[in-house]
Structures are given as C-alpha cells and as structure tokens.
Amino acid sequence: MKTSYGKQAPSPGATWRALLIGTLLIPLNSYWIMDSAGQGYPTTVSLYYNVIFCLFLLIGLNFGLAKLTPRFALKQGELLTIYVMLSISSSLTGHDVLRVLISMIPHAFWYATPENEWADLFHRYIPDWIAVKDKNFLTDYYRGETTLYLREHILGWLTPVLVWSGFLFALVFVMICINSLVRKQWTEHEKLSYPIIQLPLEMTQGGGLQGILTNNLLWVGFAIAGLMDILNGINFLVPTVPSIGGKLYDIGPFFTSTPWNAIGWTPVALFPFAVGMAFFIPLDLSFSCWFFYLFWKALRIMGAVVGMRSMPGFPFINEQSFGAYIGLFIIAMVGTRRHFKQVLRKILTNTPEIDDSKEPMSYRGALLGLFAAFLALVIFCKSAGMSIWVIIMFFAIYYAISTAVTRMRAELGSPVHDLHFIGPDEMMPRMFGTRKLGAQNLTMFSYLFFFNRAYRGHPMPHQLEGFKLAERTGINNRRLLLGMVIAVIVGIFTSFWAFYHIAYIEGARDWFAWHPFNRLQSWLTTPRAPDYPATMAMIIGLITTLCLMAMRMRIFWWPFHPAGYAISSSWSMNVFWFSIFFSSILKWIILRQGGLGTHRKAIPFFLGLILGEFIIGSIWSLIGITIERPMYRFLY
Length: 636
Description:
Elements: H1 16-34, H2 49-68, H3 76-93, H4 98-104, H5 107-110, H6 118-121, H7 135-143, H8 151-189, H9 198-203, H10 216-237, E1 249-250, E2 267-268, H11 272-278, H12 283-305, H13 317-335, H14 337-349, H15 363-383, H16 388-412, H17 424-432, H18 434-447, H19 459-473, H20 477-506, H21 514-525, H22 532-554, H23 562-567, H24 571-627
Antiparallel strand pairs: 1-2
Helix pairs in contact: 1-3, 1-20, 2-3, 2-24, 3-19, 3-20, 7-20, 8-15, 8-16, 8-19, 8-20, 10-24, 11-24, 12-24, 13-16, 13-22, 16-19, 17-18, 18-21
C-alpha cells in the first residue's frame, strides 16, 4: 500500500493468517529436513532451498487466489513473514543443531561398552534430566519397526525434551535480544546490503505477482540451472547419461610427489546456485574467499617443504579462523560503539530524543531479556555441574562468533560460514588444557557440542535478515518478533517429533553423536596440556584480521577482505570455492565491460540460477523422501 507521497505505508505484515500459515507449515518443513538424509542438507548454506521452495509454491497458489478472489491474496509482508518463520525453524531443525542434539541424548549410554569404558569415565557426570540412560527403553528406538505413539515411549523422552527445549529457547532468545539492540545501526544507519535476502524480497513483490518473476532473464537462468539439475538427477539414476557440473572432482590425486601431495583434498565443482549467490557478494570478498582458500593450500605445501608437515595441527587453520572471527566481532563492536552509547542512554534515562518504538522490543526490554535468558543458560549449565567462569567464557565466545557471523552476513552475504570445530568447546581445552577445565566441564562440553559443531545453519543471521525485510517492506517489527518466537517454539517441538517419529519406524540414526563422546573419552584418558602453538595461531588469526581491516580502510584498492580470510578455511569452501571463483570472474567482466547498468540488468539471470537449482533440487529431494530412495543432491 502506498501513501499519497509515494512512500510505503506501515503495514502489520505479520498478520494472523500469515502467522497461522507459517505455524502450519513448520511441522511439514521439520519433517522434510529430518527425513532428508541422502537427499541433501538444506541448512548447510546461507539461503535454505527448502524455504525458497515453500515460498515458490505459496506464490504459485497466491497467483491462482488473486485470479479468483484478489482481496484474499497474500501480500508481500505476509509472504515474507512466512519465509522468516520457516528460515528460523529450519535453522533449529537442521544439520548442525537439533539433528545432532537429539541423536546425542541417549548415545553415551546405548554405546557404552567395557572396551570404551564410558561408564567409568564420565557417566557419573551426566545428570539424569539431560539424557536417557535405560538401555531397555532404548531398544525400540534404535531397532525401529515400532511407533513413537505409545505412552511409555512419550513419557520416556518427555523430561529431556522439555529441558533441552527450554535451553534452546533461551539460547536463541539471547540472539533476538542482541539483534534488537544492533538492528537500527546495522539496518538503518549503516544501511548494510543484506545480499542473502535479495531473492525472497524480489520474488514476493506484489505478492509474487509483479517484479522479478515476470522477468524473462530470470527464467533463462532458471532454465539453465533447472536443466542441469534434471540431467544430473537422471545421471544419478542412469550413470550412462552424461552430467553437467554438480559433482566434486578432486584434483588432489594429480599431485603425487612431495611436497605437492600436501595439497590434500581439493575438489573442483560448479554449482549454478553458488555462482548465483556469489554474484551478490562484493568482488573483494569473493576474490578473498578463493584467494585465501588457495593460500591455505600453499601453506600446506610450504610446510612440507620446510619439514613442518609432521607438526601436530600445522598450519593451525581452525585456530587462525577462530581468531579471525573474534577479530570480526571486535571490528563490528567498535563500529557500533556510538549506537551502543545511545542505547545505554535510552535505557538509563528513557529520553524521548532516542526513539525505540519501532524496534522489535524496547532497548530496556531487550537488555532485560538478554540478561534473563543468559541467566537461564547459566543456571542450566551450573545445575549440570559446570563452573561459573567456564560457563561465562563459553557463552561469551559463542555469542561473539554468532554476532560476527551475523554482521558478516548482513554486510557481505557470504554463501557459507560453517566454521567446523572452532567453537568454545574446541578452543577452550586448547587454551587452558583439559586438567584445568576438569571432567565435569568437559562432559558438558560434549553435550553443548550440538550447536558448536558447525555454524552453517545459524539462526541469528536469519533473525536480523527478517528485521531487514521488515524495514524494506513496512512489516511491523513487533508482530514479526511474535512470528519468530512462534517459529522457535514450534520448530523445536516439531523437530523432536519428526526425529522420534522417523527413528521408531526406521531405527535411530547417530548422525554426529559419536564425535563428542569419543573426544571426551580421549580427553579423560589422555589429558592435554595447554596447546601454546594453537593459542599463538588464534592470536595470529586475530592480529591478521585487524591488520587486513586496517589496510582496507587506508588503501582504497586493497583487495583482501578480512572476512574472506576468516571463512576461506571452512569445509564448505572446499565445495564452493571454484563456483565463487567462476562467479567473481563473470562479475568482474560484466562490471569491466558493461558497468553498473549491465550489472543491474544481469541480476535477474543470477537470481534465476539460484531459483532454478533450488526448485529442481527440492523436487529431487522430495521424490527421494516419497519413494524412500536416495536421489541426486546438489548440496553436500
């Protein structure tokens, strides 16, 4: 709706029917993600293909509804509210949060044997209320061929489900409060670009009936990506049919002699959606991503040349990345310091000069909510036996990394940021040694592994991107906040339901539950001293990031972005570095030869590449789930 001045009038956006539709779709979405093993992993990149697929279907239905009864057609704000709800719930259900936690709850007791000595090593440190310990009860769960819907099954899981649900809600609510405090600065004052939201924003213009979906160039990109995925899907079923891209071709085996064989696994692959997503990130970042990826490879080779290849941990890539993300957090906080002074002034004096009426919650409410939710996390962990200083440091590191990821997504739109094994549960034992932390803290580190294994499907960036969508389309922030809270609550409980429903039919899957307990066994049987080289690598990563930012601010042509240094070591960069390289070359040529005008005209084509692969890839995934057979997947 437009005012007489041509500006978009305020709109609730998050209407009751939008909240209802989003709530009803979340259980179906949770089931899709939980049952997508072998069919691709939707939450391993910044933009979730399952959510885009649902949005695409809603737009199609909206088109028919607009023809029949236009007054009942969904508006853009309603469609985007549903998108935000599904994105946040998907983050919780996905590959790196609840799918890991749920499989961990009984794992330490079902797989305990005299040989691994888990019972003697750490069972006594695990509270009854965070785990299920009865092997007799767990038999049906691991064997399958039965049903969840028996009274004894439901009651057996009830306590840990409620306890962990409360913990996870507090964990995510802290993120919402932080985003409420920084939203105005990052969204309205600095006007960060939020590249990840471009596709859903453009798709939903005019309720999806206007704008980008009517652009022929988008459908050209859609057709190219879609046909590639159709051909690759047929190749998966009938290998004699040729494929185009979509596979990882490792060039590592071509380097057989020393020192070149130190390069390790180096896959080359071309994914249309990754080319499309990389087109929307700044050229200096896309260049830095693949440059620093190759830099790490060169560092391995140089290590082999000087005889450091046998040094444990060399070249300490994870540790340097950890330091780099702490550096990004510091940079973000320094840039936001003046806004924080205004926030503090509003909280202390409630001066009317500083308006927080359009924020998701008042600044005072956000700060109180942050403290209350953080206190809940502290009480939870303290009751489980952790030390206060460990708890505070653990979550301070976690939220620093989370904020850095969120800022990076808002400013640069990185398509991946998985950060495997650089969370506080990995870094604190390296900084302090396992003896200093003690068995009780280390045991809880294992249970907190589920949201630190990787940061690919992190919910915090999706929250801030939701608030940016609200700012762009006039959605009421406080109504959208209600949608986010509903998405968190419904997403958590439907994830537990979907996992247990599938497990009692097919037999439970362990996913990554083995890793934290094998790691804990190793810590307790072979205590580690502080790892000083690893700690030094963290400091080097921090200093390098700050130096790269300083050079970037002082030299206008400086091509190396600190965020590229941080994310280039992630596992996903192995998969997507070549797609990012290819996209950066295309973007450079377009800007060089055609300028900004040609770049703007090319945008629909690259959005079409994303949309085409997401839609056809989703269809392959749903076919696989329906017929219970692996199908082609474009996400690894």
